[in-house]
Specification:
273 residues, alpha/beta, Inosine-uridine Nucleoside N-ribohydrolase, Chain A, 10 helices, 10 strands, 19% strand, disordered N terminus, disordered C terminus, Ribo_hydro-like, hydrolase activity, hydrolyzing N-glycosyl compounds
Length: 273
């Protein structure tokens, strides 16, 4: 690790982690043992496919938070290629979602209702990795993984579990789908409850530095609860959000997009369980 000139290729996360782990192990006797242990226990770092094409699966109808997240994604996520809304979404809601995309100059982004496998495959075909950002239930994602098994190794998934006040709503909306995704997805980040759930998930998908995550082994209970379980499945889980930095980022996003009616949140840090 070291200084990187603009003309030189950037060091990968895997290489940086390996260098840091080697350093910590080598100088364990100087007090770096704790760092070495944490790096070893945490497993390999999450991939950073920030230039990969993105699919946004949004529970658009009746959720203003999701609408704002879609607007922010349209304006800031250049790699956004497809927006999925739930099957059966009223036509006027689909039209409104289309309007939101068009307002921010994203007529290149397709919008579909339900799991259109051809549309999903068209985004992922020929790509070493694609991103999936889920703001609603796991239903569409599970259907896609079942129908196109090759996606399991090619999707970097960021999935919102719930929002403050209904912390595991997206799990309980379709427990079978959620369990299937947790059991089969190879690259899954679960965004735990937060007051501004969809916006938090969008920030996590962009790997903003004010959101931390770690490797956990979990399972989903029949009642739709997420719990740590030694015999479960390894996933990434958000563990800490710097509320002040997140709030500043979110307010800046919404102001630039023309939103002015949002809660102002004060505070410094919020630890997630």
């Amino acid at each position: 690790m070291g200084d990187i000139d603009e003309d030189e290729p950037q060091e990968t996360w895997e290489s940086a982690r390996g260098s840091l782990l080697g350093f910590a192990e080598r100088y364990r006797h100087l007090g770096y043992g704790t760092l070495a242990d944490k790096l070893s226990e945490g497993g390999p770092p999450r991939r950073s496919p920030l230039v990969a094409p993105a699919i946004l699966d949004a529970d658009f109808d009746g959720d203003p938070g999701a609408a704002k997240a879609v607007a922010c994604a349209a304006a800031n996520l250049r790699e956004l290629a497809l927006v999925i809304v739930p099957s059966g979404t009223p036509s006027h809601v689909v039209s409104f979602a289309r309007h939101v995309l068009d307002v921010y100059g994203r007529d290149d982004v397709r919008i579909i209702a339900g799991t259109d496998l051809d549309a999903i495959a068209s985004v992922c075909t020929g790509q070493p990795v694609a991103r999936w950002l889920g703001l609603g239930p796991f239903t569409n994602l599970s259907l896609a993984l079942r129908a196109i098994p090759d996606l399991t190794g090619h999707l970097a998934i960021t999935q919102l579990v719930g929002s403050r006040g209904c912390e595991e709503r997206n799990l309980r909306a379709d427990v079978g789908a959620a369990s299937h995704v947790v059991q089969t997805a190879e690259e899954l980040l679960l965004v735990l409850d937060n007051e501004f759930g969809p916006m938090t998930a969008l920030a996590a998908a962009q790997q903003k530095p004010f959101i931390d995550f770690s490797r956990r082994v979990v399972e989903i209970t029949p009642s739709g609860n997420l719990r740590n379980e030694p015999g479960g499945h390894p996933v990434w889980v958000t563990t800490h959000i710097d509320s002040f930095a997140f709030g500043r980022w979110m307010r800046g996003q919404l102001v630039r997009l023309g939103f002015t009616n949002y809660p102002a949140r004060e505070g410094s840090r919020w630890e997630q369980a």
